[in-house]
Fold:
Amino acid sequence: MQARFTSSVGRRRVLAACGALGLALIVPVVVHALPGRPSANVTFAKSVALPGVILPAGSYTFEVMPEPTDANIVRVWNQNRTHAHYTGLTMKVTRPAGASAQSAFSLGESANGGPRPILVWFPANVSDGYSFIYQ
Structure:
């Protein structure tokens, strides 16, 4: 069945929707190049887990996405930033008193020898960390 547009209003709506979709596909590629956001390059010797994702041993880039609202969104890229393995909401938590200012991760216990879950990421030289939300 072929769609027919009988008015210019219908055509404008379709063009607007296509334009919004195109922008949504382009923005993530452009946004990750913006400076000034917490990020960390890390290499894991063993597999680790994030909500709904297992990251095999290897190198990754963790970064906080721009905050158009009060959301705390973290994205995890492969080493070359060509593939996003994870994008999700987090909760801000305060770095424990006396903890190193270097980038660090808090890991949970693994179930049955599986990958250990990353509970919190503390970016370097930032007072807050990002707690991943598991359900």
